[in-house]
Amino acid sequence: MKSGFIGVFEEIVREFDELGSLISAVEIMSDAKLYNHYLKKYKALEPVALLVKKSDALKTDVQDYKLMLETEADPEQKALIQNQIVETEEQIEKLILEAKEQFGKNKLLERQNVSIEITTKNDNEFVQFIKELILDFLKQHKADIEIKKDETSSVSIDAEGNGIYEILKLISGKAKKIQFGDEGIANIVVLKNIECNNEINENDLMIQTTRSSGAGGQHINKTDSAVRVTHIPTGIVAECQEERSQTQNKEKAIERLKEKIAQINQEKCKKNEENQRNSLKTKLFGNTPSVIFDFDENKVFETAHKLEYKLKDIIGGKLDIIFNDINE
C-alpha cells in the first residue's frame, strides 16, 4: 500500500477518471440531477487531479531522458539531456507542491475521522433508518467503518474517509420523522475527532546530560548520568536522575516524556469533544430540527438553508446533494 500523498493523489486521479467517464455516459447526461451531482464532484477533484496528471506525464519524460542518457555517447548531448532531466524534475516538484496546496484548500479531500451517535426516546425504527442512510453514505465514500454500538434505540459508529465530516455535519442535530401523521424524534451527533498521535520521533528529541544532584549521599552518581529530554515540536520536558546508568536514566526520561505527551493529547481530545458537544446543544435541544424526513409527503427538508428534496433523492446515502446545493 502506498503511503502519504502518493497514495492519496493516485486515489484522486482514479476517482477523477471514473467521474469523467460517468459524466460522459448518455444515461447520466439524461438525468440532470444525477449529472450535476457527478459534475460537481468532478470539478472538486479537477484542480488536484490535473496537476498530478501533468506531473505523472513529466515523470515519464524523465524516464525517457534517462534511457537516452544511457545510450548517448556525445558528451555535449549527454550534458544537454542531463540538464533537461534536472529542469523536468524541478517542474515536477513545483507541480506536486501546487497539488498539495490545492488539496489543502479542499475540505472534501481531507481525511477525516468522525464519531456518529444516533439515539431516540420514542422511535427505534427511525434510528435504524438513519443508521442505514449514514452507512450507505459512508460506503459510497469508501470510508473505513466500525460499528461500536448497535442497539434498537442507540447506534454508535466510528468512520474515517475523505470529507465525510463536512457533509455529515449538515444533518447533525435533531432529526424529525413524519409518518402516518405521527412524529418521531432522533438525535444525530457527528463529532470530528482530532488526531492524538502519541508516537515520538527520536529526531525530535533533544537529550542533555547533567551531573546528578540532591539527596542520596554515596548513592548519587558523581558522573554526568542525569538525563533531561526535550520534545522539540511541543517543548515538553522530562528528566530522570534516579538510576546509576546514563542509559537507564535516558530510557526512563523518554518513558516519562511519552506519558506526558499521551496525557496532554488525551486532555486535548477530551476538550475537543466537549467543545463540539456544547456547540451542538442548540441544534439538539432547540425547537427546529436540523432535518425533517416527511414520509407522508415523500420529502426531506434541510432546515438551516431551507432546502427541500424528494425522499428518493436522499435514500441510499446521497447526502452529497445537500452539501453541493449549499456550496454552489
- Structural class, from secondary structure content? alpha+beta
Q: State the distance separating the first and last CA atoms.
A: 35 Å
Shape: flat
Rg measurement, Å: 28 Å
Order of helices and strands: HHHHEHEEHEEEEEHEEEHH
Record field, number of beta strands = 11
Largest sheet: 8 strands, mixed
- The pLDDT mean sits at 88
User: Which strand order do you get reading across the main beta sheet?
Assistant: 2-3-1-5-4-9-10-11
Given the structure, what is the number of helices?
9
- State the helical fraction: 40-55%
Catalogue the unreliable spans.
none
Strand content: 15-25%
Topology:
Layout: H1 4-24, H2 26-29, H3 32-71, H4 75-105, E1 111-120, H5 124-140, E2 144-150, E3 154-162, H6 164-168, E4 173-179, E5 182-193, E6 205-210, E7 226-231, E8 236-240, H7 246-285, E9 291-294, E10 299-302, E11 307-310, H8 311-314, H9 320-326
Parallel strand pairs: 4-9
Antiparallel strand pairs: 1-3, 1-5, 2-3, 4-5, 6-7, 7-8, 9-10, 10-11
